[in-house]
Amino acid sequence: MRRCFILSVLAPTALCIIALLWLLWSFIALTLPVKWLISLIMVLATAAVLWPLHKRYASASASSSTLLAASAEGPIVLVYGNGLDDFFADEKVKVTAQGSLHRASKIEDLRSTVEQIWDHSPLQAGRLSVLFSCIADEEQDEGELRARLKSLRQQLRSVTELTGLVLPLTLQCQFSGPATPWILVRDDEATLTDADGNQLALDDWQRQGNNILCIPVIRHAWQFLRETLLDELQKADRLSPTVSPVAVSLRCGSAVGAESSLWQRYLQRHAVMMFTPEMHAPQPATTFAEPLFAVLTPMIVPVQGGRTARRVMLVLLFCALVALACSTNNNRKLIEHTGYGLQRWHAIPMDSYVAKASSLAALQQQALLLERWHRQGEPLRYGLGLYPGARLWLALQQA
Questions:
Q1: 118-131 burial string, b = 16+ CB within 10 Å, else e?
Q2: Cβ neighbours for 237, distance < 8 A, ≥ 6 positions apart
Q3: Of 52, 272, 296, 352, which one's alpha carbon is 20 to 30 angstroms from that of 183?
Q4: Mean pLDDT score of the chain
């Protein structure tokens, strides 16, 4: 963690402070005590900011390192909602050969989680995606469900504003009814993985055995998703853009909920059917995880740098522009000072011996100064390729 803090925070901060001090001491015309005072204030302010930041960085770095270390490659899926208790059991992370799934607690923490990764390992942020899971039979209030989805939309918008990345979103929902495998819907194409691990199109699967009897329930489940979850994600909202999930996973066969649940009320209202309470064996996790990773893997995008690199570049660019402006101003004043001395010399009559001698002494001092800069190098505040010393020295010698 110490090495990561040095590389991610301390080194960029030190580079910015050095650039600002270089600008202050080399180009800005201030008295020496004022420069020392400003330098001391800058160092103390930086130390005051870095000390508490180091403490917060320790805990944040540990959580982001755990998140990234679970899977060296492949998608990193942040799972929100309910319905995957059997999948995660008592663990918070599940790792497969294709990627990893991480159980997250609050949707409101999505931005902070992504921000930790963006600050500490910005190159890995392109592996992130979000999965929202729910069990329709456990949802009692449609307004509450829509509020969670709206909060998710706002968090995704906030993440995009922070990183410039649009995190892929996938939906997953379970329904009571005759047991079916996990069905993955993407671009109006529905596929599933049967018990033997074979991937089939939904049309091919329904022709096997009595699977055709499950199709009415699957159609109602898909309609429920469209009218509730997808409707909330894709309806117009001036506060956050619409979100289109890259894929939707659904299956039937979960435990039957109470008659007041959203799914049971939907069936009574649209299909006039009810299911008797019956526990079904949960589907193996791989039947939805592997197809999901296959969809998300092509969406991994390379990310070049994070906010720290951009901020350092902005500070360095600011210092370079201010240094150039100060050098231009200093050279302009030098030209004006030398030109004023020459004009005064030519304006004084030859019979004004005292004034003529005083003006000549000033020109000689200026010529000696320019000659010394010509031999030893001009001060940095006149540098950056703008120094007109050769022309000024020649004009003084001719005078």
A1: bbbbbebbbbbbbb
A2: 150, 153
A3: 272
A4: 79
Query: How high is the pLDDT of residue 65?
Result: 55
Give Cβ neighbours of residue 299 (< 8 Å, ≥ 6 apart). Answer: 75, 129, 168, 246
The residue behind tokens 């925070």 is 9
Where exactly are the structural domains of the chain? Answer: 1-50, 72-304, 308-398
Pseudo-torsion of CA 108, 109, 112, 118, nearest 10°? -110
CB neighbours of residue 60 within 10 Å: 19
State both tokens at 99: 């990627």
pLDDT higher for 163 or 341? 163
Instruction: Name the maximum alpha-carbon separation found in the chain.
Output: 123
- Rounded-to-integer distance, Cα 244 and Cα 345, Å: 79
- Give the bridge partners for 199, in sequence order: 193
pTM above 0.70, yes or no: no
Report residue 353: phi and psi, to 5°: -65, -40
> Is pLDDT above 60 for 61?
no
The DSSP secondary-structure symbol of 382 reads: G
- The answer for residues whose C-beta is within 8 angstroms of residue 311's C-beta and 6 or more apart is 12, 16
To the nearest 10 degrees (0 to 180), the angle between helices 389-398 and 353-376 is: 150
Per-residue pLDDT reduced to its tens digit, 171-188: 999 998 888 888 999 888
**CA-CA-CA-CA torsion sign (273, 202, 246, 92):** positive
- Residues 129, 299: contact at Cβ < 8 Å? yes
| 163: alpha, beta or left? (left if phi > 0; alpha if psi -120 to 50) | alpha
Q: How far apart are CA 306 and CA 122, in angstroms?
A: 5
For the chain, give the percent of residues with pLDDT over 90. 19
- How many whole angstroms separate alpha carbon 241 and alpha carbon 156? 9
The arithmetic mean of pLDDT across residues 316-335, rounded, is 82
Query: pLDDT tier at 214 (50, 70, 90 boundaries)?
Result: confident
CA distance 176 to 275: 7
